[in-house]
Amino acid sequence: MKKQMKKIDVFAVAVGAIIGWGCFVMPGNSFLPAAGPVGTMIGLFFAAIMAFVIAQSYGYLIRKYPVEGGEFEYVRRAFGKKPAFICGWWLMLAYISFIPLNGTAIGLISRYIFPGVFQFVPLWKIAGFQVYLGELLLTMAIVLLFMGINIKAMNVAFASQTFLAIVQTALIVLFPIVIILTGKANWDYAMPLLQGSNGESVLSGIGVILSMAPWAFVGFDVIPQVCEECDFDQSKSKVLMVATIACAWIMYSSTTLVTAIVQQEGYENWGEYLNSNPFWATGSAVEQALGKPGLYILGFAMTCAVLSAINGFFIASTRFMSALAKRKALPSVFAKRNEKTGAPVACILFVGAIALIAPWFGRSALSWIVDMTSAGTSIVFICTCLAAWKFAKMENNKKQAIWGILGTICGAIFLVLLIVPGTASSLYKESWICLIVWAILGVIFYLVKKDEYLSYESEEK
Which of 183, 265, 313, 386 counts the highest number of beta carbons within 10 A? Predict the structure, then answer.
């Protein structure tokens, strides 16, 4: 592999993957209704701490095995090929599904900032979401653009990723600062601070936020997928992961705070306003405080975040698939690389095809899939931390063994919050159906590839 990625490039890929459309729409749709502004920040802080604990195992394993495939490779070496396949199957879906979800977010931005421009030729409604041909064409154009960049010009892909990540981070952090300094913040309007509008208790609300952690913080773990292309010592990877997690907490908190402290005309507090079902609460808050110029800047920041998420997951998912194909877990065509650029062309075409098809089913259906990937990502975290614990125990590395156990516990907490029925954070019925369908598809695919996969002896023992 070409050693073409500097630390800033890797950091940008991780930030782009971890921060996408959700940072801008979740404050009004999920965070504040569940736990209020301060409750959300506390929940996200604990989630970030738990992600930090899990990252300790990732950093240890990257130094030990600096090869593509990340979690799949760690679990394969620790527990064998069958658990590795399960781990890889869930992570592959998580990476791939975020691309069309972020792609469709561009259409949502246009609905608010440029109403009616792309909402032409209504096609159908799926789960209450109206699908427009104009928005589909916009999404498909963006996907095709990044497909071309990743195939033909990887250096452009990395450079654009760095630019987008820096811009989105700077703008997101500046919004609450500007709003507070210009006197547009109303702290009375931000009440209640610790309780959501859905009526959950403080602890229950924080639990809901915690359950979103695998979804909200997935992204720092893309670093192992590009480690073979890094031109620096892998010991720096853990620092990059921790920095990514910290940036994510700051950015999620910033957009949540903005949504809660700007008073909307005719409403006494943010809860009353959110109960009126606004289309985009964070956008409305920025427009109320800073006018149309502020809204356009926010739209630009969100566009940068969405584009960097699409590009980041293109880079991570295609390299992950290529690594699986090298170990015969996927068809061998996905292992081939472009001799000039090092791009996994077949993987890019496959992921791009899914990203072009998925938006036709509507954003609601995509949200069900992404919601259930939180459970899959939790399983991946558990497997990875257990692998770190096993290797650390074999090396008599007591400190890392403790990190491995703590990371496993964190992953298990995430999973329990999602799968225990009747809790405020449990998966919806539609997400459970998607979860079961993907598991069945995994069993079928494994049975088809079983003989070749299990008999293959990797050169990397």
Answer: 313
User: What is the chain's mean pLDDT, rounded?
Assistant: 86
- Give the per-residue SS3 of 400-443: HHHHHHHHHHHHHHHHHHHHCCCCCCCCCHHHHHHHHHHHHHHH
**CA distances to 139, 309, 413 from 100, in Å:** 8, 10, 28
Nearest to 330 by CA among 85, 83, 93, 80: 85
Structure tokens belonging to residue 231: 């031109």
- The closest alpha carbon to 87, from 274, 329, 348, belongs to 329
d(CA 327, CA 322): 9
Map residue 461 onto helix, strand or coil: coil
- Spatial distance between the Cα atoms of 17 and 222, rounded to a whole number of angstroms: 8
Per-residue confidence band for 455, with pLDDT thresholds at 50, 70 and 90: confident
Condensed to tens digits (0 to 9), the pLDDT of residues 45-65 reads 999 999 999 999 999 999 888
Alpha-carbon torsion (156, 161, 163, 164), positive or negative:
positive
Distance CA 271, CA 194 (A): 12
Do 282 and 299 touch, CB atoms closer than 8 A? no
Return the pLDDT at 34.
Answer: 87
Of 177-191, 214-228, 335-349, 392-406, the poorest mean pLDDT is in 214-228
Output b/e per residue, 4-35; b: 16+ Cβ within 10 A.
ebebebbbbbbbbbbbbbbbbbbbbbbbbbbb
Give mean pLDDT, residues 177-197. 88
Sign of CA dihedral 289, 292, 296, 302: positive
Is the distance from CB of 161 to CB of 16 less than 8 angstroms? yes
What per-residue confidence (pLDDT) applies to 225? 77
